[in-house]
Specification:
alpha+beta, disordered C terminus, 11 strands, two-stranded antiparallel sheet, three-stranded antiparallel beta sheet
């Protein structure tokens, strides 16, 4: 973790991070759902809409945006009427690690209404598996506590102050239904990242993210309610509250780091301003998602799955 907390540095690093920019693309509840569905082999508009329950105008907008950034490519089939299928591009396939981390989190903590595969099967080793986050340099399994973090704001990335991005309002019903891709949105993941970087007090989180007190208060209350944060009284000052991660939010770290890496390598072509280092091997940490049985890197074409509501790929 950071040795000393510099709020200005942390604010600038978050604002120019590949994570923040990546979440502008994949930080809403519907876009993640679309990508999950496409990785399940669901490619036609009507099938995507039926499987996900996304309103048709919203789905149309999300698909158009994903095509524009080069993650999906439409293919026109000469039927009556003509129909498009949406296929992953090479850039889109690069999101597979993040998608596997979504699946793993949902298996442990989620309550997603849309059916996801119950089992994943690795064709290479012929075993069912769970994906595990590993270090690309040494191959060891990695958790959040196995890393240290340094911050270096990236001047080449457009600096858009986080306070200029208005967090969406979250109703009581929304907070009660929070789950990744549906209610864990861009701002929730940025709050969790701020806590990872050492911001445990309300004023610290507000400062580094630029969220107004009333909005942040509602956001933190919702995250505590659904178990993404725990709140305790500071032992040294009873007037202050400490916010810490829970097992549920710690398990989101794999998704956060995989999405950040994809955004830097495939979308922005820039290094992130938040730079993790693997303590065990002392290399800069690059995530690799592997099979927990044979420990080999996972690729979409090497994985099959069973699901009652989605086609096998």
């Amino acid at each position: 973790m950071l040795k000393a907390l510099d709020l200005e540095l942390t604010h600038d690093a978050l604002a120019t991070s590949t994570l923040s920019h990546g979440l502008k693309v994949f930080g809403d509840r519907w876009t993640v759902q679309v990508m999950l569905s496409v990785f399940l082999g669901i490619r036609r508009f009507d099938e995507l809409q039926s499987h996900s329950g996304i309103p048709r105008p919203t789905l149309s907008n999300r698909l158009r945006a994903l095509v524009q950034i080069g993650v999906l490519k439409p293919r026109l089939y000469q039927e009556r009427p003509p129909r498009h299928e949406y296929h992953l591009t090479r850039k889109g396939t690069g999101l597979y690690d993040a998608t596997l981390m979504v699946w793993l989190w949902e298996q442990r903590w989620g309550s997603r209404a849309v059916a996801l595969p119950q089992k994943l099967h690795h064709k290479t080793c012929q075993h069912d598996f769970s994906p595990e986050l590993t270090c690309q340099a040494c191959g060891d399994k990695v958790g959040m506590n196995d890393l240290s973090f340094s911050l270096s704001p990236n001047a080449r990335l457009r600096h858009e102050p986080l306070e200029g991005m208005s967090p969406p309002r979250m109703s009581t019903r929304e907070s009660a239904e929070m789950s990744l891709g549906l209610r864990v949105d861009r701002w929730s993941l940025l709050v969790l990242t701020a806590v990872v970087l050492g911001c445990h007090y309300f004023d610290q989180i507000s400062k580094v993210l630029g969220i107004g007190p009333n909005v942040l208060s509602r956001r933190l209350s919702g995250m505590v309610e659904v178990g993404l944060l725990r709140c305790a009284t500071d032992a040294h000052d009873a007037r202050r509250r400490l916010y810490r991660l829970t097992p549920s939010s710690r398990d989101l770290f794999g998704y956060i780091v995989c999405l950040s890496t994809w955004a830097g390598e495939s979308h922005l072509h820039e290094p992130s301003s938040i730079r993790p280092r693997h303590l065990a091997c002392q290399h800069s940490f690059m995530p690799r998602v592997a099979c927990d049985h044979c420990h080999q890197t996972l690729f979409p074409w090497d994985v099959s799955f069973t699901s009652s509501k989605a086609k096998n790929t």
